[in-house]
Amino acid sequence: MEGDSTTINITETPKERKGKAPLLATPPASSSIKPVVQKAPKRGYKRGLAILDVVLRIAGIAAALGAAIAMASTEETLPFFTQFFQFQAQYDDLPAFTFFVIANSITAAYLAVSIPISIVCIVRPHLVAPRIILIFLDTVMVALTTAAAGGAASIVYLAHNGNSDANWPAICQQFSDFCQEVSGAVVASFLTVVVLMVLVVLSAFSL
């Protein structure tokens, strides 16, 4: 009996076979991973602001040049005069009006020269350096034109109303055409100031 051996066959049940399933899950398919694409910032609005900038500069040239020409051509001579006395009013009789003509002429020339820089901003709206240059120079022109328009406006006010404390009579009752032309030139100059201020804001938004 010692040499006899007994063989026992152990069969696996279906439940035991299920227990031997691999524990590691299959990795997800590579197609389920979507790459993140970053969109480039839109620069269309900058090009639109640059086009508006050019249009406003042309309008500013017309306003500043019109103000300078209107003031420089202002002259009136009263109909009653003698051989020795003549009543005449010209813009160069007052230094404030002379400065007004010079300042608005400078502003008109600057706006004309700055148009090519503004066109560069249309072609390449992502550039920052031209915008910074325009902001600086436009601010200088705002100060210059405001000073000229403000000085001329004070003289126009005195011409219309006078000053009793200083014994300055109002002259617009006699020189009515002169005062009307001068007043129109001052209004055009203040319109130029508004255009320049809008240009500064546009350049700041475009940065």
TrEMBL record:
Coiled-coil regions, chain positions: none
Biased composition (Polar residues): 1-12
InterPro entries registered for this protein in UniProt: CASP/CASPL, CASP_dom, CASPL
Chain ranges passing through the membrane: 49-74, 94-123, 135-159, 185-205
Domain Casparian strip membrane protein residues, every copy: 47-195
Lipid bilayer topology: Multi-pass membrane protein
Renumbered residue ranges of the record's region Disordered: 1-29
Protein keywords: Cell membrane, Membrane, Transmembrane, Transmembrane helix
Compartment(s) of residence: Cell membrane
Gene Ontology CC entries for this record: plasma membrane
Summary of subunit composition and partner proteins: Homodimer and heterodimers.
Protein family: Belongs to the Casparian strip membrane proteins (CASP) family.
Family annotation (PANTHER family): CASP-LIKE PROTEIN, CASP-LIKE PROTEIN 1U1
Protein name (record): CASP-like protein
Gene source species: Ambrosia artemisiifolia (Common ragweed)
